[in-house]
Amino acid sequence: MAHKVSDACVGCGACEGACPVGAVAVDGGVAVVNADACIDCGACEGACPTGAITAE
Fold first, then answer.
1. In 3D, which of 12, 8, 44, 43 has the Cα closest to residue 26?
2. According to the lineage, what is the superkingdom (predicted)?
3. pLDDT per position in the chain (56 positions), as tens?
């Protein structure tokens, strides 16, 4: 199960750097989680300063 990014995302990139498998990328100022690559570890969720990333 991948994580979901809400409208609260400000595109800061903290989640991108926190993901151990590179499943998160900032595209067009918003984070995008690649569901196929996501290992559901929650690192991106914990790194997000706005709480924009949550488990689906």
1. 12
2. Bacteria
3. 789 999 999 999 999 999 999 999 999 999 999 999 999 999 999 999 999 999 98
Question: Strand, helix or coil at 10?
Answer: coil
Helix (H, G, I), strand (E, B) or coil at 25: strand
First to last CA, the chain: 7
For tokens 């499943």, name the residue: 23
Q: Tokens 């199960």 sit at which residue?
A: 1
Provide the token pair at 20: 């151990």
Return the H-helix or E-strand segment holding 9: none
CA distance 3 to 48: 12
